[in-house]
């Protein structure tokens, strides 16, 4: 990490801390807001109140001369509360002008967008970001995203997505932080802080929206939008904490998920949206549905639009994304006594409060400064930060014979369907990105190598061999660039390039839109045609480096067994190519660690490190035993475990020590380990601490992450890394859903990944 970026991160984070001290008299501010909104609401008709709850699709909005379209008319009539996914300060300003100049009460609109991993400067996909295990960096990326988005008209982002996901068939694993509750919660908090700072009124902070509430990541069979069904004890211990963490960090809005929970769609689930969210957690921001979430309750089997709109409002929904249900049916439901005026008022108040907190009533154009947009979006500084951040997210999965970093290579063959494809670098959900301006791997290698090496490029094969599948994944402005030559011809060209080279870099994997929303896969291996290419390249006898692009864990068993070096780069954003070149050429030493288990095959799914032991666990070191919990045809091991990631250097762990053999309810237990950089490069290591509660009133996982530190060591350096555990770290939800710890034996594990740790024990008194 360059000094400039480190300094910028420090400055940005310090200003966040300072802001918390300068937030003047919050209760006075609160009172002022409440009075303002009460007065405003007194003037509002029922229709205008329902208008505030309406978030229509803005696809057809035409501004300026053509502003007399349907949505513009609705805005004038006070029937729109906000719009989303419109890009540019000018456009948003023009639409806002309609609201504040031509509607009766001049209530400003709120403008949202899916700013998921960066705005125009795109950072790695969230799954990649989570592999940095670097909270300051993640917060900083969200800060830059907020800075850019707020300069360009946006004051509300539909992020962070904090759904725990343990099924890599689900395409949306790419949008979250992986399988772990503890890591996911920390990341959720960092992102909220990055977006919102501590003062939403500032023109460079934006409102976060935690999504998708709840359990969306547990869709059966990894099929998007599918049913979820889960015990409450699992929900509370494993799936709900990241949402709660994001709200505790101050997130001002939350999005209901598409799936059902306990047989009732989240959008109409009163237990979820009121009993848990409002009563138990004390959330006072607003709830928005997901896209057509209300209307989708009809095919879920919950009734017609009128019935499901009332269901949603009564459950606790405040804003209706795209269904038009609250706007068009609630008046009738009110007359019939199916909803109350109080419910409508509560929802309306929450939307107005969010607008107030964002400062939109003081200045509706606060986020539409065209000059700021020109000066602050996609700047060289932000791109430099994206490059440095991206390099921290790559996970080195294999590096036999120190194949990497590449040194003194005169001729490099760069082969593969993702080697020269700028549009596929940003990854899924990069709404504001300018894909053509992304840096491809070919661009990046040329930039970093200059005249030092000769690069021979060949596409080698298509992403997939089936043109119908190719069409499905060549969407949203991200074509795979289908080449109609025969596979044989393309491979022959690649092999010829390889034969003339000192090393082969194979840029293979998924294209951007093979993961993300509605991109579930039942087979998560590398497409056969790409494997054929790899086989042909290996047959040349040249060293092959596989640069793996992916939005999910993949079953790459054959690749792991046969290819000497594998660098997993996810989808790394605008600066992908430069960042990958920096790592391949050793300018940056990789330090990413997996936040999701890679399974050996789809049959093992769900496979995650913090599973339960069962009554018949397989003995350690065994592959199979009859009448034990295992498979006949595959071991229980993952292909790569949670927390795994190599470095160009090596790290040794020694002397795991506990400050005591007992921990009391008010005490502290220090856990320390000596970490030595025993290899030939300076580098960073994520030291991971796990615990196991040996005996409980309910069964406890075999390991649970409870701490981590990313430590940078010069080669040869040794450092003692210290963690502190308290009784609070050992709490969990028991069968009464009470958050408790239970005295008894605990194990503590510290190591380089979830499967390779040193071990000690203590007793909670
Ligand atoms: C997605 C959300 C997204 C929304 C608005 C939906 O299809 O599930 O994650 O925020 O669209 O674009």
The main sheet orders its strands as: 2-3-4-5-6-9
Q: Tell me, briefly, the overall form.
A: globular
Q: List the ligand species.
A: beta-D-glucopyranose
**Secondary structure tally: strands:** 26
Name of the CATH class of the largest domain: Alpha Beta
Range of helix content = 25-40%
Overall pLDDT = 95
| CA-CA gap between termini | 43 Å
Per the CATH scheme, the topology name of the largest domain is TIM Barrel
CATH-assigned homologous superfamily of the largest domain: Glycoside hydrolase, family 3, N-terminal domain
**Contiguous helical run count:** 23
Number of domains: 3
How can the largest sheet be summarized? 6 strands, parallel
The fraction of residues in strands falls at 15-25%
At CATH level 2, the architecture of the largest domain is Alpha-Beta Barrel
Report what the structure shows.
The protein has 765 residues and is an alpha/beta fold. The protein has 3 domains: 3-23 and 48-372, TIM Barrel, CATH 3.20.20.300; 394-584, Rossmann fold, CATH 3.40.50.1700; 650-764, Immunoglobulin-like (Sandwich). The protein is built from 23 helices and 26 strands. The chain is globular and about 75 Å long. The two termini are 43 Å apart. The relative contact order is 0.10. Residues 14-25 and 62-68 have low confidence and may be disordered. The structure holds beta-D-glucopyranose. Residues 85, 114, 158, 211, 290-291, 517 line the site of beta-D-glucopyranose.
